[in-house]
Specification:
alpha+beta; single chain; 10 helices; 290 residues
Length: 290
């Protein structure tokens, strides 16, 4: 399998991204882009073809389609398939396609920085890969794509998206090594605790007591790894569970609010509207209409 080799700095430049769903019987359309197109599958399988190469991209896997090559779905989806897409460029279009190899940091580190010159690094990203730390990668993608306000952007949004995209690229490189850093291990511990206890009262004091890490250190680890704080992740996870219950059950909003750990249903509704752009009941109607 091929790898995309690039010199850093500069980092690849993020252009635009989003998420999409193909239903059973649908397939990806045919096109040729002048930019890189990264597809990460969250659920289901994408059957993609680039030139003569075919990729069955399953849950937790990604493919990076290169500029100038025609890509398309070569078969219909056999189930609902949810995926993220990211468009980006490599400055100067300076990259090479090389053969797959066993990687470690010695391949990346090329030149030490001095007091007046930046260090230089050579990244090798698998064109087709599978991630080991799915929750971290998917949360990074969620954070990256959430940095927006409807269809309007301010300069700060673009800059923050680029920073978050750079962190995502670093994560993909680390995934190729399959070696989690200490920061990632702390982040994974916090995420796991939140996922298992989100129905209870969770705050920074509780996290400090249960995980035995200082709140500031926990916050730094999570912000560096997934781009958001522990409390922001707690809110994100609770609302994702609420959206699932709104779509799959007939529970009242007040019952769903309590079920996800938020006792005040008024606060829950305001928070849902602020972060999702719609009320809980409007979200339920929208999902059922689809």
């Amino acid at each position: 399998m091929s790898m995309i080799a690039m010199s850093i700095p500069p980092f690849p430049t993020f252009i635009r991204g989003g998420d999409y769903t193909f239903h059973k019987g649908e397939r990806h359309f045919s096109r040729v882009f002048t930019v890189f197109d990264l597809l990460y599958v969250k659920k289901g399988t994408l059957f993609m073809q680039e030139g003569k190469k075919r990729y069955d991209v399953r849950e937790g896997q990604y493919v990076i389609l290169v500029p100038g090559e025609r890509h398309e779905g070569y078969a219909d989806c056999v189930e609902q398939t949810d995926y993220y897409w990211l468009h980006f460029v490599i400055p100067g279009n300076v990259y090479q396609m090389v053969e797959d190899k066993e990687l470690d940091w010695s391949f990346v580190y090329k030149k030490e920085p001095t007091f007046t010159e930046a260090g230089h690094y050579q990244f090798h990203l698998p064109q087709f890969g599978e991630v080991n730390r799915r929750e971290i990668v998917e949360q990074q993608l969620e954070t990256l794509l959430s940095i927006r306000d409807g269809n309007t952007h301010v300069p700060e949004d673009y800059l923050r998206q680029q920073i978050q995209f750079s962190e995502f690229v670093i994560q993909l490189q680390k995934e190729a090594f399959s070696i989690p850093s200490a920061t990632e291990k702390v982040c994974e511990s916090a995420m796991k605790y939140i996922q298992e206890n989100y129905k209870k009262q969770v705050n920074m004091s509780v996290l400090k007591e249960e995980l035995n890490y200082h709140p500031d250190y926990l916050t730094r680890c999570m912000q560096k790894t997934i781009g958001i704080s522990p409390i922001q992740y707690l809110t994100h996870y609770r609302l994702n569970q609420a959206k699932r219950l709104l779509a799959e059950t007939e529970f009242k909003v007040s019952a769903i609010s309590r079920e996800v750990g938020i006792e005040d249903v008024t606060y829950f509704s305001k928070l849902f509207k602020k972060l999702e752009g719609t009320t809980p009941m409007e979200y339920r109607r929208l999902v059922h209409r689809k």
